[in-house]
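re: ur question from yesterday

yeah so i grabbed the chain u mentioned. its 129 aa long if i counted rite. heres the sequnce exactly as i have it in my notes:
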Amino acid sequence: MDTEGQITYWCTGSDEDWDVAVELLKAEKIRHALFFLHLAMEKMLKAHVCRATGEQPPRIHDLVRLANRAGLDLPEAWLLLLGRMNAFCLMGRYPGNPTTQNISTDIAHRYLREAQEVRTWLQQKLSTP
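ran it thru and got these structure tokens back, copy pasting raw so excuse formatting
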């Protein structure tokens, strides 16, 4: 496996999905914005799995499991955030979940800000050999 090529692939996809999430949030398409936010984080974590294991990442969507698989030592607050964000993966596919269907624009913006902090750290960690 071309590990560096895979890392680039996952990071590029993450960047694209992040941009889509931001644009969808501006348009107040909350459900879709949060789905793409989850997808962007998932792909960034999969880049870390590639770096840590030298293998293709598993075909899973659980952000906490991916972080653990990558051996990342994340603060508890970040793990809790990723755990809450897991619902966005399902919300995008299966709307109607009462725990996620009424997320306000303000709360969605808060998720974006908090995820940005984690994402920036993940990006910096990838650029450090």
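noticed a couple things. The domain at 3-127 is CATH 1.20.120.330 (Four Helix Bundle (Hemerythrin (Met), subunit A)). also Residues 80 and 108 are 16 Å apart (CA to CA).
anyway ttyl
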